[in-house]
Specification:
CATH architecture of one domain: Beta Barrel
Strand order of the largest sheet: 1-2-5-4-3-6
Shape: elongated
CATH class of one domain: Mainly Beta
Number of strands: 10
Largest sheet: 6 strands, antiparallel, barrel
Radius of gyration: 22 Å
Distance between the termini: 66 Å
Strand content: 35-45%
CATH topology of one domain: Thrombin, subunit H
Amino acid sequence: MRGRVTAIHGDVIEIEFIGGLPNIHDALSVQKPDGTKLILEVHDHTSPTSVKAIALGFTQGLMRNLKVSHEGGPLKIPVCKDCLGRAFNIFGEPIDEKFPIEQFSLMPIHASTPQLSTLTAASGILETGIKIIDLLSPFPKGGKVGMFGGAGVGNVSMIS
């Protein structure tokens, strides 16, 4: 499936396809005139022949009528035991300068949330080291907790 760039609005790229559209969240690639490859992710079907995609890199040098290729599915990242504790970029490439990962399976970055019944609960309390939080509202390990708020929610102290 091939398309061409029809408009560029910052990081949002409009692409026209002939003969079908890629799915939402599918990866696209475009070869820029300087020889670098830009990865895009389909965000919206705007008409029966065009999509809007988000650029996952610098759009400098991108121009209208450049050819766009479908990458065959969504963005995928490596998944295996060796991936635990490692740092990857959005394209699944290791960025922590450690050993390369050799045996892995690729999984899409967009996946459904696991059923709550399949999750195992971590036991214990996460100690923050902030006495008032640890005493009055301890955080359970393995969960999500909103701890700090933004401006105007009462978390600023004035010292005079």
